[in-house]
Amino acid sequence: MHLKELIVRVNQLVDQGKSVLATRHTTYDREYVDAGKIKGFRSAALSFIERVYGRDHTHYREFSAAVDGFGPEDAQIGISILEAIRDELDGGWLFSIKGLVTAEVFADFLEMASYLLEQSYKDPAAIIAGSVLEEHLRQLCVRNGIDIEFQSQGVSKPKKADTLNSDLANLNIYNKLDQKAVTTWLDLRNKGAHGHYGEYTKEQVSNMVQGITDFMARNPI
Q1: Over the stretch 65-86, which tens digit does the pLDDT of each residue have?
Q2: Tell me, what DSSP letter sits at residue 144?
Q3: CA-wise closest residue to 203 among 195, 211, 215
Q4: Roughly what angle, to the nearest 10 degrees, separates helices 122-143 and 93-118?
Q5: H or E segment at 47?
Q6: Are residues 21 and 128 in the same domain?
């Protein structure tokens, strides 16, 4: 889901929570809301939170624990949590945090590629660096609302890295010079992965690792 779609969905869930509150009524001196509606609200909200943050996140645990009854306070707490999520999404915090974590992991792999290169293992270095590049392209597509899969005979299949590269350049996420460089790096990675070790040099792999590092810095996720 693209960021705008996530925010639209949160707003829908907030509205759903408010419709639950609208059913509040008093029975035996206690206030309740419609049991079916609040169960539906709980299920839809937890499904959304799990998809965006995962089950281990504070938002999921708090919502699951707090929205577990039939009182109006349950619905109100649920709405408040969703509004907090909306503020995070609207401020770009979700993708900023994910980007920082991913960047750190990628940096570790690129450092590993550099170490292998120093030890004259140019072929695994090329494969590792190319794999980091491909995943970065995938994350850039997700960040910018570009599909990373396509339908073939009713089955979803992942797009190839070259296709992701074209999609990103066509939307001006980065320029044509970057697109050409990415194509070259992906080709070098493929040569390494398919055993064509004599078709590139250690120096080319070194330039590739440095180029990918610079490219990722210019185009963060």
Answers
A1: 999 999 999 999 999 999 988 8
A2: T
A3: 211
A4: 170
A5: helix 35-53
A6: no
Q: Say whether both 127 and 80 belong to one domain.
A: no
CB–CB of 171/216 below 8 Å? Answer: no
d(CA 206, CA 197): 15
Q: What is the identity of the amino acid at 113?
A: A
Show the domain range for 111. Answer: 93-218
Burial class for 182, CB neighbours closer than 10 Å (0-12, 13-18, 19+): buried
CA distance 181 to 119: 25
Look at residue 102 and tell me whether its pLDDT is greater than 70.
Answer: no
C-alpha gyration radius of the chain: 24
In the structure encoding, which two tokens stand for residue 200, read together?
A: 């590139």
Q: How far does the chain reach from its first CA to its final CA, in angstroms?
A: 15
**Is residue 101 pLDDT above 50, yes or no?**
no
pTM of the model: 0.55
